[in-house]
Design brief:
This protein is α/β, with parallel strands linked by helices. Helix content is about 35%, strand content about 15%. The chain has a six-stranded parallel β-sheet with strand order 5-6-4-1-7-8, sandwiched between helices. Strands 11-10-9-15-16-17 form a six-stranded parallel β-sheet, with helices on both faces. The protein has a three-stranded antiparallel β-sheet with strand order 13-12-14.
Length: about 400
C-alpha cells in the first residue's frame, strides 16, 4: 500500500485543449554537446505522454548546469530536446529563451499534441532568486502548471515555486512516485526498517541521521562518515578522512542511538588516495601510520548482511567507500547486491547511491531509485520541499 499523496496530480485536473507548462529535470550530463545519460529525460516520459494523449499542448522548462548568467551554448537544452524528440518520435520545437515576446508567440501558436522546449531557465539570473516577475512571465505561457522535476523540488526558484503562484499547479507522475516512495521512509514505515547512510560527511547528513534514528530499527553507517564515528570511539584513523569538528557530535549520536547504530568493524585501507594504491584489509581499530580507509571490509559486509536479513523496508543514501575507483568499490557493490536480493522495499536516494546501483547492474531490481540527490536528502530530513509545498492539495 503506497502512502496517498495529498497533492493533486495531473490526473486530477482537466487539461484537454489546454497549454500545459511543465517543469522537468533535464539537468543531464553532457560531453561535447551530446547527452551522455538520458535517464532523467526518460523518467519524465510517462507524464509527457499522458499530457499529449489528453489532447493538450506542452511547454517544457528545465535548468541545465550552472551558467554564469545569459546564454552560454554549452548549457543549451537543444541537445536534450533532440533526445526527447527521438524518444517521443515526434518533433520538439526549440525556443531561443524561456520568456519574452518571441517565446510567447511560439507558445500561443502550439496546437494540441505539439511540444515546445524552452531554453535553460538559469540563463536568467532571477531564476535562482525566485524572481516573481520572471515567474509571472513563465506562467503567462501556459494555462496549468505541472511540476515533474523532483530533483529541483528542494529549491524555491522561479520555475519551481514562483510559477505555482500564478497558475493551478499539480504534480507529474515522477514527482508523485518520488513522494510516495520516499514518504514511506518518513511516515508510517514498514518494519523491520533498516536505513543505510554513507558518503563523506556527517555535517551534511546530521539531520538525516537524527530523523532516521527516530524512525528505523537499525542505522548502518559506512563511507567517510563512518570514520568520524570510529574516531569518536577513540580509534586512531591515521590519514583517513575525519571531520574533526563533528567528533563530539558523533559521540552524542552514539550515546543516543545505542545498539541501533551499526558501524564498520574492518576496512580496506590504502597507502595513498589513488586508484593504483597498495591495499590491505585491517580491523577498524588497527590502521597503520600513513594509511587511510577507502572502503568497508569483508567482515563489515557480513555484519551488515546479517542486519539486513528479514528487513521489510531499506533506505540507502551514500556509498560505503571510494567506489569510483574499482579497488574500493567492493563494499558499495556488495550492499547494492544485498538490497537487490533482500525481498524488501528498497528506496535509493539519488546522486552517488543511484549511480552505484546502476554501476553494480542492479538498478532495475530496486523498488525505487530517486532522481534527486539533494531533494531526497532534504525529504528524508523531514523538511518541506518548496516545489512540493507550492502544489495544490487534493
Amino acid at each position: 500500500m503506497l502512502i496517498p499523496m495529498n497533492k493533486k496530480t495531473v490526473k486530477d485536473i482537466d487539461i484537454r485543449n489546454k497549454r500545459v507548462l511543465m517543469r522537468v529535470d533535464f539537468n543531464v550530463p553532457m560531453t561535447d554537446g551530446k547527452v551522455t545519460d538520458d535517464k532523467r529525460i526518460k523518467a519524465s516520459l510517462p507524464t509527457i505522454q499522458y499530457v499529449l494523449d489528453q489532447g493538450a499542448s506542452l511547454i517544457l522548462m528545465s535548468h541545465l548546469g550552472r551558467p554564469k548568467g545569459g546564454f552560454e551554448p554549452e548549457f543549451s537544452l537543444r541537445a536534450a530536446s533532440e533526445v526527447l524528440a527521438s524518444l517521443l518520435a515526434r518533433p520538439v520545437k526549440m525556443a531561443s529563451d524561456c520568456v519574452g515576446a518571441e517565446v510567447e508567440k511560439m507558445a500561443k501558436a502550439l496546437k494540441p499534441g505539439e511540444v515546445l522546449m524552452l531554453e535553460n531557465t538559469r540563463f536568467h539570473a532571477g531564476e535562482e532568486k525566485n524572481d516573481l516577475d520572471l515567474a509571472r512571465q513563465m506562467a503567462s505561457l501556459g494555462d496549468v502548471y505541472v511540476n515533474d522535476a523532483f530533483g529541483s523540488a528542494h529549491r524555491a526558484h522561479s520555475s519551481t515555486e514562483g510559477v505555482a503562484r500564478f497558475l493551478p499547479a499539480v504534480s507529474g507522475f515522477l514527482m508523485e512516485q518520488e513522494l510516495e516512495y520516499l514518504g514511506r521512509a518518513v511516515s508510517n514505515p514498514e518494519h523491520p526498517y533498516i536505513a543505510i547512510l554513507g558518503g563523506a560527511k556527517i555535517s551534511d547528513k546530521i539531520l538525516v541521521v537524527e530523523t532516521l534514528l527516530s524512525k528505523c530499527d537499525r542505522l548502518i553507517i559506512g563511507g567517510g562518515m563512518a570514520n568520524t564515528f570510529l574516531a569518536a570511539k577513540g580509534f586512531n584513523m591515521r590519514d583517513s578522512l575525519v571531520e574533526a569538528g563533528s567528533v563530539e557530535l558523533a559521540k552524542s549520536i552514539m550515546v543516543k542511538a545505542g545498539d541501533k547504530l551499526l558501524l564498520p568493524v574492518d576496512a580496506v585501507i590504502a597507502d595513498k588516495f589513488e586508484a593504483e594504491a597498495k591495499t590491505h584489509v585491517v580491523d577498524a581499530d588497527k590502521i597503520p601510520a600513513g594509511w587511510r580507509i577507502m572502503d568497508i571490509g569483508p567482515r563489515s559486509i557480513s555484519l551488515f548482511k546479517a542486519a539486513l536479513n528479514g528487513a521489510r523496508l531499506i533506505v540507502w543514501n551514500g556509498p560505503m567507500g571510494v567506489f569510483e575507483m574499482p579497488k574500493f568499490a567492493e563494499g558499495t557493490f556488495a550492499i547494492a547486491h544485498l538490497l537487490a536480493e533482500s525481498g524488501a522495499t528498497t528506496v535509493i536516494g539519488g546522486g552517488d547511491s543511484a549511480s552505484a546501483v546502476k554501476k553494480a547492474g542492479v538498478a532495475k531490481q530496486m523498488t525505487h531509485v530517486s532522481t534527486g540527490g539533494g531533494a531526497s536528502l532534504e525529504f528524508l530530513e523531514g523538511r518541506e520541499l518548496p516545489g512540493v509545498a507550492a502544489l495544490l492539495d487534493k
